[in-house]
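pasting for the record
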Amino acid sequence: MQNVRREDIQALMYAQVLSDPVKVSTKALRVRTYTRALGRSPHELPSCSPAHPVHIRRSHCSCTSTRVQAFVTNQIKRDPGANAIHKAAAMCKRRVFGDPVESYWLLHSWIHRAQHTALGGDDDTVASIQTVPVVNHGAQQADGTHTFQGVVFVPGAAVRMARLLKPVVQVDAAFGKGEHNGIILSLIGMAADNEVIPLAFGWWAENESDVAWRWFLRNAVPALRVLERSELVVLSDRHPGILSAVDEFMTAPGAAQGAPCRVHHMYCIVHVRRNLLKHFGQNQPYEAAWVKLVNALTVDRFNAALGELLAAPKGRRVFKYLVTGKADNPPEVVVTDAQFREAAKRWSACYAPTRTWGCMTSNQAEAFNNMILVARFSMPLQAMRYLCRILEERLGRLRGKYDELAADEDPIKKVLAPNVHSQFQNSVNAAAGLRTEQVQQAARKGRVESTSRDDHFHAVEILDNGQAKCGCRVPQVYGRPCKHAARLAAALGGITELSMVAPALRVDTTRAAIGAAGAVMFPHLADLQRAPLGTPFVPRRRGRKRKKRAAGADDGPGANAGAPARVMLCSRCGKQNDHYASTCTEVIFGKSALLPERKFPLGVVGKILHEHPDARNLITAAMQRKGWLVLPTGLLHA
């Protein structure tokens, strides 16, 4: 049989992946979608790629060895063998997700170009890279170079639009699933209809911690200038690292009307509920009381729900847990009512210190983590580019959606986002027939009948900014008029219900934000300069353990008893007869880019003045360490 070139197999696999993706079991070889992003970068595609790229996000590629081998055999009419197939698949994986060694060499150059419009980036973009010196670990020798630790990227489009979105952001982290693990940190903004808009993202090589979050927020928050607003709500899953990092910004010096920005850190109620179910069990009477506590808008409803909680079995333990964060509190621990209400400011709409806009979960951040599966399997450089494309796609969809709304003939639909319009219309319809009393035309105040309690009237007031204030607290929490405010507006006359909707919920505000964002600009990977940046230190993974693979037909007691024992070799850490790379949890120390097996072309790179100053210093230090003659400009002497 004639030899088959590896490049031919690679090209055939690329064509198969981009033109005919097949969903397979998640327990098959976990090489995820080879990404729609490739189809949007023609210079990165092989010549055999289809003219119309396939847009895939969550499906899995048909890249099991058996399936790929069958496809290639059918195409070239010969069987290239399992080894050739495996090597070709590895080449495809490196091309899509990034080379685990050489992708770090290009990171400094890409970060530098991303911050300059003339070089293919955006002058408003803020990006930073964190490196640490190489240290001795066994055979690894310190050589003056650095290894990668983290990168943060704030696109210029996000910088320009952040202040026009809702004053609510969500922060979360997602585990990386590539060779070097790591975590992807994200800061998510929301448009008028709670659409996901990634404003900043980063990659940290180690586990999620307060160090990672402090570094990320110190770079991202000032760049986005969200602290120039008077109020800001930060929603999170209350990871200990986030708790300590956000505290730094709770009293940040703001710029809104000369007053400091008040940052309010609130907890995702879904995560709080999961912890309750974990510690106190499911299908318990306390659950109904907890739901009422969270959703209560008034103090009266909150008090009634609190009484139900204390009367329920395990309710007293839940009461203490919500304050102390500990499930097993000793009897001597006393939690007062005042302490409980202070803690409720983190998760209750009733005691929230500012308008929450109805956002009490980090669902948008969790949804974003599901959008970026390809980035989680990629190297940091390729992940940042993919996340930029996600932002580009989101803005494109929102631009089309809100332009279509603005062109609607309905006078209300063209002003309010769809979900806001639905809630607004319900309030206006329910306002008809409500009784009013003590209406003061000059003060724009009055009392409107309540529909939930007999013979009770809510005090309603139309403020100077046009928005309403009501005893039911719907306008204060959601930023739109309730039925009582709509009824008072009708009684006063001259005030429209639409004028009481907060600007952040309007179509024109979101259109202005998208228009200010402009294009998402970031450089290509072609012709990037190289720098001797080593691979990162990879600690043991925290969090949920990986599940064992499903047993196959040949697994189990007595299976393949006569066959010779297979040698298990982990391609990640190099150990034998212990595990494979897919289940590897070993610590991997950072490795220098100048190791002989990595073949970094220091002599070639040293003759070119690198565009990034930190990379320039790395190259100069490495050449001096080797004793080479370096010119005052930092270049290698010819």
